[in-house]
Amino acid sequence: MADDVEQQQTTNTVEEPLDLIRLSLDERIYVKMRNDRELRGRLHAYDQHLNMILGDVEETVTTVEIDEETYEEIYK
């Protein structure tokens, strides 16, 4: 019985970055990508190169425009 508790604690601990991803399987995650792209979806699988298979994904692309009069950034 003590071995079961110890093994469960070992599988739920985060010692390396990939451990955190492993614990996020079948959970909704947020992925920030290059060029101001963001993904939100359910993590189904991943590999050692961090290729991910997501389901029910929503993609958000943020564009920045500069107001020519005030030179302020406008996020859309």
TrEMBL record:
| Residue ranges constituting the Sm domain according to the UniProt record | 16-76
Q: One biological-process term from Gene Ontology?
A: mRNA splicing, via spliceosome
- Keyword Cell inner membrane in the entry? The reply is no
Keyword list (alphabetical) reads: mRNA processing, mRNA splicing, Nucleus, Ribonucleoprotein, RNA-binding, Spliceosome
The protein's matches in Gene3D superfamilies, at most eight in alphabetical order, are given as: 2.30.30.100
Location in the cell reads: Nucleus
GO cellular component terms, A-Z: Lsm2-8 complex; spliceosomal complex; U4/U6 x U5 tri-snRNP complex; U6 snRNP
Q: Which InterPro entries match?
A: Lsm3, LSM_dom_sf, Sm, Sm-like_LSM3, Sm_dom_euk/arc
What are the GO MF terms of this UniProt record? RNA binding
What is the stated purpose of this protein?
Plays a role in pre-mRNA splicing as component of the U4/U6-U5 tri-snRNP complex that is involved in spliceosome assembly, and as component of the precatalytic spliceosome (spliceosome B complex). The heptameric LSM2-8 complex binds specifically to the 3'-terminal U-tract of U6 snRNA. Binds specifically to the 3'-terminal U-tract of U6 snRNA.
The similarity annotation says: Belongs to the snRNP Sm proteins family.
Subunit text: Component of the precatalytic spliceosome (spliceosome B complex). Component of the U4/U6-U5 tri-snRNP complex, a building block of the precatalytic spliceosome (spliceosome B complex). The U4/U6-U5 tri-snRNP complex is composed of the U4, U6 and U5 snRNAs and at least PRPF3, PRPF4, PRPF6, PRPF8, PRPF31, SNRNP200, TXNL4A, SNRNP40, SNRPB, SNRPD1, SNRPD2, SNRPD3, SNRPE, SNRPF, SNRPG, DDX23, CD2BP2, PPIH, SNU13, EFTUD2, SART1 and USP39, plus LSM2, LSM3, LSM4, LSM5, LSM6, LSM7 and LSM8.
UniProt name for this protein:
U6 snRNA-associated Sm-like protein LSm3
Q: What is the species of this protein?
A: Clarias magur
